[in-house]
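hey so u asked for the seq, here:
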Amino acid sequence: MKTIDDLQVSGKRVFVRADLNVPLDGTTITDDGRIRAVLPTIAGLADAGARVIVASHLGRPKGAPDPQFSLAPAAKRLAELLGKGVAFATDTVGESARSTVAGLADGQVALLENLRFNAGETAKDDAERGAFADRLAGLADLYVGDGFGAVHRKHASVFDLPARLPHAAGLLIAAEVEVLKKLTEDVQRPYAVVLGGAKVSDKLGVIDHLLEKADRILIGGGMAYTFLKAQGHEVGTSLLQEDQVPAVQAYLRRAEELGVEFVLPVDVLAAGEFPDLKTKAPANPKAVPADGIPADQQGLDIGPESRKLYAGKLADAATVFWNGPMGVFEHPDYADGTRAVAQALIDSPAFTVVGGGDSAAAVRILGFDENAFGHISTGGGASLEYLEGKTLPGLAALED
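ran it, structure tokens below
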């Protein structure tokens, strides 16, 4: 896989597929981590004299313009971080895009409007997707893939466009791949994996693959209650995927056969109802044993004994991969489990990887220093699919 160091970019129009899919509150960006992550690539290309054309998706519009998913706030924030103007095209391949790109001088940067405002970006039909890629290719001389959070998607700007232009990986994708190789090739042991989040079905593939790789797997978040149910415990009104119980039981048996340690919560914070995430009103949860959740209550975070247990299981690890919060971290009454795991990673001498998505957001929201971790990924879904051993279309397209 070539990198931007292999490209001659001075005076060239360089299309950078970034991932600027940032969370918005109206038009206010609440977490600019993904913009900052691609900044070195954009700045490096501009400093080398390229005419940089940045493109990204945001949210899930229905293949047509939708003001609530405009990238205009991202253009403003990108300009602030670059310390220079960023021209903004109000369409993707139309008159605004063409005139904006034509107006670029060497070292200048433009951002196109949301790629998903064009149905061709996400089309299942190869011809429709290819036609959109052809129009995007007409804007540029070179292609740089640096939107790691989208490389598991077979989309026009991720998969089809690199085939139409000389291409290379940006600094972010190169770094992400290097880190993921450390989790799959010549792993330093003990290797501990922490998996959380809402649905166990989202993680079954990675669990299946990691049973051959990891020494211990710690489970938290909403998915933990399907595991507890699989062990024969009642979980009250907790989030439960009943149809996944047989699969989870099979994984627990297989883990025992392979000598992989599964660590589940020994206690949880439970309450009668889900907390109000807007007002953050006190929820007054109660710590209860994981095998004693009241019938009318739901678990919403791992409890204090589980926090100690998990910290101990991470203390001697040499490699740790963490994907998914331990509870409803957005509410202060249920943030301590996720906070404890983050702190345990910081305290550990291990090479630590935060696997994107809500975990990365939690690190920032809870106020941790991002530099205290070995690596914070920008792509939760992409990271998981890589660890599952899947071929990621956006990475395959960058291979020579």
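The longest helix spans residues 33-47. The radius of gyration is 22 Å.
lmk if thats what u needed
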